[in-house]
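Protein modeling request. Please complete all fields; requests missing the sequence field cannot be processed.
Requester role: graduate student
Desired output: 3D structure, token encoding
Chains: 1
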Amino acid sequence: MGNQSKKTASRCTTEAETGIHRFEIIGYNLKRGIGIGNFFQSDTFTVGGHNWAICFYPDGVSKGTKMFVAISLELMTNDAEVRACYNLFLVNQVTGHSESIMSLHSTAIPFESHNYFVARENKLEAGCYVRDDCLTIECHLTVIKASQLCKIKGGLEIQVPPSDLSEHFGRLFLEEEGADVIFMVRGERFLAHKIVLATRSPVFKAQLSYGQMETKAHCVPVEDMQPVVFKALLNFIYTDALPDSFDDLDEEDYSEVIKHLLAAADIYAMDRLKLLCGSILVKHLRVETVATTLAIADQHNCESLKQICIEFMASSDKMDAVVATQGYANLKRTCPSILVDVLEKRSRRCKA
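Delivered output (352 residues):
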């Protein structure tokens, strides 16, 4: 899938405090007749850090509402702006259930007091809300507090560490535990595991298959390859990466080892390693080395590197310097047909 995008997450939380207050009115009938706009008030109760009270108007709040009782919730804290939602209920004295007198539950907007009306004779007194001269009003109140924003560690996901498969196989290579084949490279011994080599290289798979003489002897000689190159080849087989020791080489030695490693990758049919070596050599192309690199690319079937070398030579304004190198002389002697490609491309550029 390639590199994954970094994922982060945050969460906004809003705290709220909820409270319920019951206001019992004993001697309901004695409260009637106190006059329009007059009310009885509950004890003050606190929710969300603010003080509240329920007001009960037995004779309504105006001449037009004198046939109704009015009930309201009042904010008693002075000069406070509060976001709150609430509902007012009458308690059924028979069932004990609370029944809302509001058509809709209020929403969490800045609080404003409103009167809610209940028909005195047709509903309040005719129902089961007044019993033994007792009326109970209930308020459910939720006060919204400040919102908080916080980061969520790791986002809404489980963090999976990078694969350590190459690390484990690299340790297997270095510790040589369970190795079942030995390679002799110019007097140096390298131990490895047949199954790993066969999995990564079709050439190794054929070479180490049962019935082969070298396999029976468990010792395989490797000709025409430097030990440092063969070790780098094995390191790539186990870890899919070049050895860390390459970082200590100077540019000239590094390029030289990479050229030999590209040749080894071609011998053992490891295309990814060959392309990796080619990409490194492209970064180190110079007038002094381009002809030699072109010869290696052609000899070991690295077409992408070959085309870049040809392009480099055809577009170079220092062609005379390239021609003067020993690499160019060797290329002219061993593979003159490649130079035809270079000259043709250069000619087309000059005509364009």
